[in-house]
Amino acid sequence: MPDSLAGIVAAFRDQRVLAIGDLMLDEFIWGKVSRISPEAPVPVVNVTGESYYPGGAANVARNLREFTAKTAVIGMVGADPNGCRLLELLRGCDIDTRGVQQDAGMRTTVKTRIIARNQQVVRVDREQRVELSPEQAGRVAEQVERAARQVDAIVVADYGKGFLNQALADHICRVAAAERRVLAVDPHPHTSLVWPGATVIKPNRTEAFLAAGLPAADAAILPLEDRALLEAGERLRQRWDCGLVLITLGENGMLLLEAGREPFHTPTRAKEVFDVSGAGDTAISVLALALAAGATPRQAAELANSASGVAVGKLGTATVSQEELATAAGNR
Q1: Residue 41 maps to a domain
Q2: Edge to edge, what strands does the sheet with 109-116 contain?
Q3: pLDDT, tens digit, for every residue of 213-224?
Q4: What b/e readout covers 183-216, taking b as 16+ CB neighbours within 10 angstroms?
């Protein structure tokens, strides 16, 4: 097992990883604002460029690919131009897309962000909830079984668009347990899915309270003294029978709950925050890679926190390179 954070990051390249979940296309429209519209009190954005990136679980795969060439993804897209563009972007990153199904009757989810003066002006979502047909669900189940035999870690990103349901969640958990794979889950607060036996669950504070079935409470100044949050996290850990719960707290860092150990808080590593788009995808990716590479839960939490701190300092759906993470970890 690597004995330093830098050594753990170096071991990422040897890990084989799989991302599963809702696949999306992130569109960024860049522009300048010089006046307010005479039609309404809103800025007029003069467009200077457009960018496209994998989003949702596809962005998780893109983050994983920054650290290891052995990255695959399972999900579904439409046969529309946006779905084809997303597949092209993933393949352009050398991500294995054999587990991605195209559905001619589906519209690919697109999140469009308009950015001016380094700030997001508005986000426009075009989405359609997906319900897998029995045939599609059967193919996904087979793909999960086949891929799980060939990877070290599985990362699930639930964005609540319908690709993941309880039957598939149960199947993923069973397969991961049978193959003894790291299973890291980024849950969605409104799907009510449970992930029995997962290695680690990574909700944010709001998601933790919702998933635990507890009313939201004001945050304490010190996370380790936040009794309501600690109760929510522990209830989640026991309810889902998972070893670890890592709760992201924005500017307050992250809180790790581990069976048989005292809670652990790692403060934020962000120096400047420009854009939080995709920071959670970065965190769950690094968390899974670190655990697969032999890191302790606390080391994995530290690395996930450091990676998130780098990601929020970039504009757009950004990823973090191995060199950037190694530098951030080395500065601790």
Answers
A1: no
A2: 43-56, 23-36, 109-116, 119-126
A3: 899 888 888 999
A4: bbbbbbeebebbbeebbbbbbbbebbbbbbeeee
Cα 59 to Cα 43, 170, 255, 265, distances in angstroms: 29, 23, 24, 26
β 244-248/254-258 pair status = antiparallel
Confidence check: pLDDT of 330 > 90: no
What is residue 263's three-state secondary structure?
coil
Query: Both tokens of residue 58?
Result: 């596809």
Kindly report the CATH number assigned to the domain that includes residue 216: 3.40.1190.20
Residue 36 lies in a domain: no
Q: Tens of pLDDT along 95-104?
A: 999 999 999 9
Pair 209, 216: CB distance under 8 Å: yes
Phi, psi of 177 (to 5 degrees): -65, -40
- The number of angstroms, rounded, from the C-alpha of 213 to the middle of its chain's C-alpha atoms is 22
Contact yes or no for 153/292 (Cβ under 8 A): yes
Distance CA 108, CA 52 (A): 14
209 lies in a domain? Answer: yes
Q: Say if CB 45 and CB 181 are below 8 A apart.
A: no
| All residues at 6 or more sequence positions from 3 whose CB lies less than 8 Å from its CB, including other chains | none
Domain that holds residue 290: 5-23+56-106+131-330
Residue 251: per-residue pLDDT = 85
Report if pTM > 0.70: yes
Residue 100: what residue type?
A: V
Per-residue confidence at 43, pLDDT binned at 50, 70, 90? very high
* 190 found inside a domain: yes
* Interacting residues of 212 by C-beta distance below 8 A, sequence separation 6+: 231, 232, 233, 235, 236, 239
Domain count, the chain: 1
Catalytic residue list = 281
Please report the sign of the dihedral spanned by the C-alpha atoms of residue 308, residue 144, residue 78, residue 164: negative
Indicate whether 325 pLDDT > 60. Answer: yes
